[in-house]
From TrEMBL:
Keyword presence, Transcription: yes
Record key words, sorted: DNA-binding, Transcription, Transcription regulation
InterPro entries: AsnC-type_HTH_dom (IPR000485), Dimeric_a/b-barrel (IPR011008), Tscrpt_reg_AsnC-like (IPR019888), Tscrpt_reg_AsnC/Lrp_C (IPR019887), WH-like_DNA-bd_sf (IPR036388), WH_DNA-bd_sf (IPR036390)
GO MF annotations in UniProt: sequence-specific DNA binding
Record's GO cellular component terms: cytosol
Lineage, opening ranks: Bacteria, Pseudomonadati, Bacteroidota, Chitinophagia, Chitinophagales
The protein's name: Transcriptional regulator AsnC
Signal peptide: none
């Protein structure tokens, strides 16, 4: 959990720039923002220690790697108090890449990535149905991802 931290304009600019291109060197980012690379390094370290920056990720084209099925699963729990134990069990399923505790019709909403429909069927039938506390699920298969982006961090 991120601690409360007073972020200044430079912190927000660093976050904004690195969300756009995490491969940029601290020296190049410093030049772009008119500060030293050392200043960028210190600020990134401060943001990491505060839990705001949690590392960097490689953006991979999953379809190019053979993952052709993306689906979303609405999960109904028997009781909302089972959320923590069910979430822990769902985390053990590697195909589930994102899980949210939600309001509305579902208690939980998960994103799942599979190579094909057979793998999706296996996860739904053989993995999810074994988890105690799940009453039922509803699955939505994604036909196309139109876009994916980070939230816009404003620099005031």
């Amino acid at each position: 959990m991120a601690t409360k931290l007073n972020l200044d304009k430079l912190d927000l600019q660093i976050i904004h720039e690195m969300m756009d291109n995490a491969e940029i060197s601290y020296a190049d980012l410093g030049k772009k923002l008119f500060v030293s690379g050392g200043t960028i390094h210190v600020r990134i370290k401060k943001l990491q220690e505060a839990g705001i920056v949690k590392g960097t990720k490689l953006n991979v084209d999953l379809k190019a790697l053979g993952y052709d099925v993306i689906a979303f699963i609405g999960i109904y729990l028997e009781k909302s108090s089972l959320y923590d134990s069910v979430a822990k069990e769902l985390q053990r399923i590697p195909e589930i890449v994102r899980l949210n505790y939600t309001t509305g019709n579902y208690s939980m909403f998960a994103e799942i990535v599979c190579k094909d429909i057979n793998q999706l069927r296996f996860v739904l039938h053989d993995e999810l149905q074994k988890i105690k506390g799940i009453e039922r699920t509803e699955t939505f298969i994604s036909l196309e991802e139109s876009f994916s982006r980070n939230v816009q961090v404003f620099t005031q």
